[in-house]
Amino acid sequence: MPKKIVSIGLALDKISIEDIEEFALQVENKIRTFLQEALPVEKSYDADIIVSVEKKEDCLVVFIDLGILGYLGDVIDYDSIVRSAIREASRYVEQYIQRYRKTNNHG
């Protein structure tokens, strides 16, 4: 899947390492919750979820990798669910980082 780059002008100096760690955990939890809702048959899949967030000098890099090994491939379109989960996680990322957006207001 191609990389999606979104530039919104973040106040990176306001984002701590603790914020980044918490953010990565929240994104992973959002994906897990999405999968539990989309795949209600317990034990019908194994999911590998990797979420990494890196603060660079001029940007925040969010990497999401999701793989599902499904046992009910004849009745469940796992590829479609993976794409949907990544889309949902991306929307959550965009909403979450809005709190760190630079504004013209002082304070």
Major sheet characteristics: 2 strands, antiparallel
H/E topology pattern = HEEH
Structural class: alpha+beta
What's the total number of strands? Answer: 2
Task: Provide a descriptive summary of the structure in words.
The chain is of the alpha+beta class and 107 residues long. The protein has a single domain (12-100), classed as MTH677-like (GMP Synthetase, Chain A, domain 3), CATH 3.30.300. The chain has helices at residues 17-38, 78-97; strands spanning 45-55, 60-70. Strands 1-2 form a two-stranded antiparallel ribbon. The termini are far apart.
The gist of it:
The chain is of the alpha+beta class and 107 residues long. It has helices spanning 17-38, 78-97, and strands at residues 45-55, 60-70.
Q: How is this fold's topology laid out?
A:
Blueprint: H1 17-38, E1 45-55, E2 60-70, H2 78-97
